[in-house]
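Give me structure tokens for this 466-residue protein.
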Amino acid sequence: MNQVLDALYINIKSGIQLSIFRRLNLEAFRVTLDQIVLLILLNILADFSHDYLTNLPNPSFNPNAIPGEGFSILMLMFACYVISLLFFQQEAMLSLSVVILSVCFSLTLVWGLVNWQLTHVPEDSSVIEWVNGTYFIWVFTVLFLTLRTIAGGISRNVVLAFLVLLVIWLVPVEYYASGHSYWNVQEEESQEADDPYAAYEALDVEGLYYAQPRLLTQTLQLLQPGQRGKKDVFFLGVGAWAFQDVFLKETLYAKDLFEQRFGSQNRSLVLINHLSTYKTLPLATSHNLKMALQYIGANMNVDEDLLILYMTSHGSKDHSLSVNFWPLDLNDISPDMLQQYLDEAGIQWRVIMISACYSGGFIEPLKTPYSAIASAAAHDRQSFGCSNTSEFTYFGEALLKDQLQEVYSFPLAFSGATRAIGERETSENLTASHPQLFIGSEMNMYLNEFSDYLERKSQIKIASGS
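Here you go.
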């Protein structure tokens, strides 16, 4: 046993000397099968230990590192076999394995020290790149000198053997097995904070359901009824998908737009599914939509007042508007449902805008002589812009932000928006969404009179300087 340990000590010592560019020959190593096994175990222990120390004070064991270590050892042995077979004598495989494993122990110790030091350096620091680059240049140099030791000098075979070592061992291990540490930092709080669903999982679903009647009633009671003899505007915004902020932002923007430019102040409300608003605003559910429309219908002069309904969410191929606030189980809104809600509420004059994929499927069921219906896409097309980083969908940006901020005519605004959306989709190589517009015969005259009235009002306001 003492002879085995003495031989291991000699191999480790010679490996360290090679790693600092000492010129040695093969007689400086003790080559036996026992030494291969011990050196493999020693290298595993070195990896295991420096991973543990690097990830203090809360190391968490990672069993996925074991297959990676096994793959590295297997490919090293295979590389040694191929190199010995092609460039040296076949018996040299044993010597080559012992020398490389002896050197690897030094390389592993230095890598552990480098990693430990780099934990104190900011991740975006260029120092990390310089240190890592220097380390890998050193590793390649040491391995080349190791092959020189086996060959007894530099030759063409040494260069070719080094290339084989790269191709069979170093490159595959770096590609398939790097990055797997035996120990990782255990950061339960950080993982919970990074979990996008953690806040949703913490929702009191039952409490949220029971809070809806109170929130909806409080919101509806703030609406003022229509005034007889005046065309008042009621606005209802629906942002129905909780997981992407764009629907929240677009709905609130639409509310502000129609209050400021189209006179819906004190007659506007929104139904929104979002973590930031669920305690203060009623949810965008099919039931809340139905109740809101019934309340508006009961408080407007249905023969003269106008409802502007703006709905934004994802859409499905069956032409339903997606309603989602997981873990709540909510019903999607179909065209037939919306048509039924509007009819039951007795709302006659309707401008309906739907920003969703396949939203053109809403137009046919909602058609009346007293309706205007705009969709972000044809019944068989997708619309775009539904990302968490966007302020608007493509349809919302073109229609609300770019057009209705400048003109009062809905047909004119839709025409300009459709043109802008088409140009944008072409420039981004997207399949055209083909926004759709229907305006009933009676609604066409209503909108012309209404936009003329708003235009005159605006000009008077500008002339008066107010």
